[in-house]
Design brief:
- The protein has 390 residues and is α/β, with parallel strands linked by helices.
- It is globular, with a radius of gyration of 24 Å.
- The longest helix has 28 residues.
- The chain starts with a helix and ends in a 5-residue tail after the last strand.
- It is built from 16 helices and 7 strands.
- 46% of the residues lie in helices and 7% in strands.
- The C terminus is likely disordered.
- The strands form 2 sheets. A 5-stranded parallel beta sheet has the order 2-1-3-4-5, with helices on both faces. A two-stranded antiparallel ribbon has the order 6-7.
- 35% of the residues are buried.
Length: 390
């Protein structure tokens, strides 16, 4: 009897040890990009007042740490690469399991899509770090239509177990986002063709994107969460005007506000874009973020949490964010990117111009103007103060 009991206990202990080792190994071999993006959200016990949902256009265009510093808004950016609206819907549903915001900001890009998912690899970035529960399981079942791919989302070890040769120090010392889910994309577009939209066109059918946008709005309204729809700016809006107009119709139908940034003359596309399709660099993102901050404070009851002791740790997070901005400046090797990063109202900028021939390059002229420089006042020996205040 004692031998049987001893064997049973030994067997149970062996299973426990195996599971602990498997859990540890799973944490090592798993990709860290999803952990990097989401960990600050799941680590925070205090409530978030605003959540931003959408594609990489949101990821690159809205900076929660700037909203904190300027307006005291506690927010998180859930924008993700290639996220069609069905994926965004399930990300939102999962986020609402952990926080109850006062405002949900949803960007309407990909409204015309009928597919539920764009790329399996991108889905892993969007879903891996989300704790497993029924809502996540329902989302996987809905969005990942190929059944043989679902196991990789239910049990990540099944897809990452062969990453041993790829492991580096980041797999053992895990970094987390210092931008509260946002991502600074430090590039400037080399080719820019600006097109205007067609006023009256609409999507010709009730697409999958439209269906899931409706589901998102209805879910928020059921929970008494305000909704703000956006369509972030693009120099090539002609290709997407039907989505822009359809989003406006849906906003009116549900009685929610809608910000069509494509109609707002607020960007210098040459200085503010990383490419021709919506992605913004930090110069453009700070303009969009500031506009959103003012708009949200004017139209919604979003509290200023800067004097709330429960959120004092955000001041430390902001210091880390400032360090990141300085690091990004220091490692630039191109003058174009460095000048672009100087477009920040929290910095004073001085430029000593020793060679006037630089003004023969259109991009540099755009970047100087983006800093507030009056090109007509320049001379060879002039010391230029951009006039940007701290």
């Amino acid at each position: 009897m004692k031998k049987r009991l001893h064997r049973a206990v030994s067997g149970i202990m062996a299973i426990i040890i195996f599971l602990v080792i498997l859990y540890y190994v799973d944490g090592i071999v798993a990709r860290k990009d999803s952990y990097f993006k989401y960990e600050p959200f799941f680590k925070q016990e205090e409530n978030f007042d605003v959540l931003f949902m959408g594609t990489s256009h949101v990821l690159n265009a809205v900076y929660p740490m700037e909203l904190w510093n300027d307006y005291g808004i506690v927010s998180y950016n859930f924008g993700g690469h290639g996220n069609y609206l069905p994926t965004t819907y399930w990300i939102m549903k999962n986020a609402l399991e952990y926080t109850t915001p006062k405002l949900m900001v949803i960007d309407c890009f990909f409204l015309g899509q009928n597919e539920k998912m764009r790329d399996v690899d991108q889905q892993h970035v969007s879903l891996d770090r989300i704790p497993f529960n029924k809502v996540k399981a329902d989302g996987i079942k809905d969005v990942i239509e190929e059944k043989d791919k679902r196991l990789d989302f239910y049990w990540k070890f099944s897809i990452y177990h062969n990453r041993w040769n790829e492991l580096d120090k980041e797999d053992f010392i895990k970094e987390i986002s210092r931008e509260k889910g946002a991502e600074s994309r430090i590039e400037l577009t080399k080719e820019l063709d600006i097109s205007e939209g067609v006023d009256n066109c609409r999507l010709g059918e009730e697409t999958t994107g439209v269906l899931y946008l409706r589901k998102m709005i209805e879910e928020c309204q059921k929970r008494n969460i305000n909704v703000l729809l956006t369509y972030l700016p693009s120099p090539t809006i002609k290709e997407y005007q039907a989505e822009v107009n359809t989003a406006a119709d849906i906003a009116e139908e549900y009685g929610v506000n809608y910000l069509n940034f494509c109609d707002l003359d607020m960007l210098n596309y040459q200085a503010d874009c990383t490419d021709r399709v919506f992605h913004l660099n930090p110069s453009g993102a700070r303009k969009v973020t500031d506009y959103l901050g003012k708009y949200m404070k004017e139209h919604y009851e979003i509290p200023d949490q800067r004097n709330n002791p429960s959120y004092n740790f955000w001041y430390e997070d902001y210091k880390e964010y400032e360090n990141l901005k300085l690091e990004n400046m220091q490692k630039q090797t191109s003058l174009e990117a460095y000048l672009m990063l100087q477009a920040d109202k929290n910095y004073d900028v001085m430029i000593e111009l020793n060679d006037k021939s630089i003004l023969d390059v259109e991009l540099y002229c755009e970047l100087f103007q983006n800093l507030g420089v009056d090109l007509l006042q320049l001379s060879r020996e002039t010391l230029i103060n951009s006039g940007i205040s701290t």
